[in-house]
Amino acid sequence: MLLILLIGVWGAHPAKADEALTAVTLQLRWHHQFQFAGYYAAKQQGFYREAGFDVTILNGRPGREPVSEVLAGRAQFGVANGELLHQRLKGQPLVALAAIFQHSASVLVSKQSAGIRTPHDLIGRKVMLISQGADVGLVAMLENEGVDISRIDVIKSSYDINDLIEDRVDAFNSYLTNEPYYLAQRQIPISVIHPASYGVDFYSDILFTTEAALGAMPDGVRRFREASLRGWEYAMAHPEEVIELIIAEYNDAKSREHLRYEAERMRSLILPELIEMGHMNPGRWAHMADTFVAQGMALPGYDLSGFIFDADPRVDLDQWRRMVGGLGGSLMLLVAVALVLWFYNRRLRAAIDYGRQVQNKLRNQTARFEAIFQSTPDATVIGDLERNIIMCNPAFGQIFGYRPEEVIGRSSGILYMRSEDFNEQGELRFYPGAKTRLLPYELDYRRKGGEPFPGQSMGGPIINKDNDTIGYILVVRDVTEQKKSEQAIVRMALTDSLTGLANRHQFNITLQEQIKRSARQPLRFSLLLMDLDLFKEVNDHYGHPAGDELLRRVGLALRGIFRETDLIARIGGDEFAVLMLDQASPQDIRQLGERVINSLAQPTVIDGHSVQVGVSIGAATFPADSTDEAALYRMADRALYASKEQGRNRLTLACEALAVDTES
After folding, report:
1. For 415, which DSSP code?
2. pLDDT (tens digit, 9 = 90+) per residue, 126-153?
3. Three-state SS at 99
4. Domain 2-102+203-294, what architecture?
5. How far apart are CA 420 and CA 422, in angstroms?
6. Mean pLDDT lowest for which of 110-114, 188-192, 432-436, 517-521?
7. Considering the domain 106-198 in this protein, what is its CATH number?
8. How much is the mean pLDDT over the chain?
9. Nearest residue to 135 (alpha-carbon basis) of 88, 177, 81, 61
10. Given this model, what pLDDT does residue 427 score?
11. pLDDT at site 317
12. Is residue 574 annotated as a catalytic residue, yes or no?
């Protein structure tokens, strides 16, 4: 009776205006945002209504995860990541309907200051995850890298990025399309650990349901899937319209700029111009399952039949032939023969039509792959078993500067800056026994004119259906601008924005490095601390803009006095420091200090006002005065204080300040 009721509810035809709609719930994985734009568009544009559904879309939150909600019957459809396959391998009756993201957006984000660069750096740190079941892609990456998750302090995700910003955790489970925007807005340098960089690149944001629902309402599931994909096609074609819809009806917390950022980043994950929306490759699902098995997260011998939804099921001709053959009987022989022929002819026509459809699909698929190869922005090379180039795409010419006829038939070794890299990659990746999984790596490549450039690469053998190696593929992305951006971010993190000098952070790092180096070789260097005299009066009389201009001029003056080997830093409001890395005698230090005092004592005109300040300086030398970083700072600071006590505008060495303290 229950099955009949489900069929009646789910199998209904698309609703007319006067027919009641079937109420269903779609459970999302996260807060309302552009990540789920296609579902909002399907509802707003009436695609769900045309399919016969009244859809309630629920956002995700702690304690309300899509897989558990759908299995419990509180939602009929959900959006999940790799945990969907993981739960299926554990026996849960889940069915994948469509993969919206062809590449996973799940990453771990940390502040650069935390020093987390690789999965191994997470050991002993506080890391937020939704759950090990929901973040299986991240867990698989850790297993893949030999990181025991029990050695990580895993905290259940609060869904609040402020926990990372305010240092309550060291790393935060994030989406490439979302959390990096918040941190960029706050000018917080970040590090990103992406599972794809460690060989784990799963489907993401997968629309799913259960086997029971599919068995009871196959047509209803098909119609819901088609309406959802129509919504996604609309959303990616009209992002601004959908952004306004999200702000008006779903989420007023995000700015338009943030939603635009999210929409743009999603394009590289969905690839709507190149890949059919919702496309799923059984081979890739099998590779994901093999990853779970290899990491001990699932048992071998799995069976994925029934897991991947078939939107275009084929007719089983053998079943019909057996059924027709079973109708034979001695008294009905002629009728049976006639029926067999009738069915045979009918199925034969269907088979011919199906063959044409397969041919058309193959032709379309070939054209699609050709379009992908020709339009991908990364240089892509196909080679033979000897790694000679036999095919390259337009981006290859743009990046390397060669025309196809200049490289086809030549060794791909001409692309590498160093011949040893070419040979080493051949031993690692480009040989018949190499694994087919493509792992990213970085090398220096060479353009046609010999100019080197950094490239992020993937490559490996091409394997046919008989498991024979027939060639290789190499994909290279020019990351020159990315490297420049990273270097700029590092400079910003280590530079005082007002004066362009080093900031306190860089100064402390350099001092610590010098002290560590002293353990390996004898070093002598000096630490000078400087404090401007009467600077507060400049701010009080002429305003902070004048004070800022004065600080900039002080920075320029210090650059002109000290050597290029010395590190000059602004470590506070009107406080400066110099690390004299080359050996310097007390006489040298005093001469340079006198030059600083005389230079800053000269009046300077700012905004029509004559401004004059002085400077007090304290100096301590390693190792004569101390071999401890903190003690060296204290001694230089005590010498600076002695300069102020003795009337300012002077330099005092740490040994002199110590002598004064001893006498007093």
Report:
1. G
2. 999 877 666 777 888 888 788 888 899 9
3. strand
4. 3-Layer(aba) Sandwich (3.40)
5. 5
6. 432-436
7. 3.40.190.10
8. 84
9. 81
10. 75
11. 43
12. yes
- Given 3.40.50.970, 3.40.190.290, 3.40.50.150, 3.30.70.270, which CATH number is that of 495-663? 3.30.70.270
Q: Using one digit for the tens of pLDDT, what is the confidence trace for 157-169?
A: 888 889 999 999 9
Residue 595 pLDDT > 90: yes
Task: Count Cα atoms within 13 angstroms, Cβ side, for 224.
Answer: 30
106-198 with 495-663: one CATH topology? no
* Pairwise CA distance, residues 19 & 4, whole Å: 20
User: Hey, what are 437's tokens?
Assistant: 């999984």
Structure tokens at 597: 């005092």
User: Tokens for 96?
Assistant: 């994948």
How many angstroms separate the first and last alpha carbons of the chain?
Answer: 101
Q: Mapping DSSP to helix (H, G, I), strand (E, B) and coil, where does residue 116 land?
A: coil
**What DSSP element (H or E) covers 54?**
strand 53-58
- CATH number belonging to domain 376-479: 3.30.450.20
Q: How far, in whole angstroms, is CA 134 from its chain's centroid? A: 18
In terms of Cβ atoms closer than 10 Å to its own Cβ (0-12, 13-18, 19+), residue 33 is buried
pLDDT score at 320: 42
Q: What DSSP character marks residue 159?
A: S
Cα 557 from Cα 89, distance rounded (Å): 68
Residue 9 parent element (H or E): helix 2-10
> Each residue of 562-572: pLDDT tens digit?
988 899 999 98
Report d(CA 193, CA 142) in Å as an integer: 11
pLDDT digits (tens, 9 = 90+) for 244-269: 999 999 876 788 888 998 998 898 78
Angle at 460 (CA atoms; ends 454, 461), nearest 5 degrees: 150
Q: Which residues pair with 278 in a beta bridge?
A: 99
Q: Longest Cα pair distance anywhere in the chain, in angstroms?
A: 131
Contact call for residues 103 and 60 (beta carbons, < 8 A)? no
Record the tokens describing residue 268, joined without a space.
Answer: 């590289």
Catalytic residue among 574, 588, 628, 661: 574
The C-alpha atoms of residue 152 and residue 598 are separated, in whole angstroms, by 56
Find the DSSP H helices in 314-459.
Answer: 317-325, 333-375, 394-400, 404-407, 419-428
Cis peptide before 62 (omega within 30 of 0): no
Residue 373 has pLDDT above 70, yes or no: yes
**Which is higher by pLDDT, 227 or 479?**
227
